[in-house]
Amino acid sequence: PRSTLFPYTTLFRSVDSGFKIYNIELPADMQQYTYAMCNKYGIQYELLLAVMSVESNYQINCVGGNNSYGLCQIHYSNTSMLQRAIGLTDLLDPYDNIEAGAYMLKMYLDAGKKRSSDTYFVEHYGLNCYNMGEGVFVKNCFNYGILERTYSNKVLTRRNNLLKI
Predict the structure, then answer these.
(1) For residues 147 and 141, what is the distance between their CA atoms, to the nearest angstrom?
(2) Which of 2, 78, 138, 145 could form a disulfide with 95 if both were Cys (CB 3.0 to 4.6 A apart)?
(3) How is 102-129 classified by DSSP, letter by letter?
């Protein structure tokens, strides 16, 4: 697990002055790690925090009823891909889980960018793919003209509320 392998103090030195600790149920060191992973993958820090809020309410050891695990509720079916892509070793290790969530959110936002340059579109597309998987979202929603869903609206509302603080 990353929690035993990485020298976090070295990683945190790279955190720039844009880092903000929010008054949320996620420890400060994990907020710093989340910020660092968002920088690594080029995604918005508050967006990933909002995903964690909706997915697990910041419960580190959260296990969903459908084989989804951790802060970012990574589905077990993604384990092999994440092992190859980022060296994931443990879905319940919070640091592995945060990096997996950042990686997957970036992947789905990039998929949205291939379809449109509109930020509104990209965020809704990426978030709904994160929630359902891209194939399921495209087949059951997007192909029927559905871009916004309760999930993406909820995540974006929580992100926007964080940005107001």
Answers:
(1) 7
(2) 2
(3) HHHHHHHHHHHHTT---HHHHHHHHHHH
Integer angstrom CA distances of residue 47 from 18, 30, 41, 54, 65: 15, 15, 13, 11, 24
pLDDT in tens, 132-164: 999 999 999 999 999 999 999 999 999 999 999
Q: Six-digit token pair at 157?
A: 């509302």
Q: Tokens 């891909």 map to which residue?
A: 81
Neighbours of 110 (CB within 10 A): 14
pTM of the model: 0.90
Residue predicted with more confidence, 111 or 4: 111
β-partners of residue 75 are 68
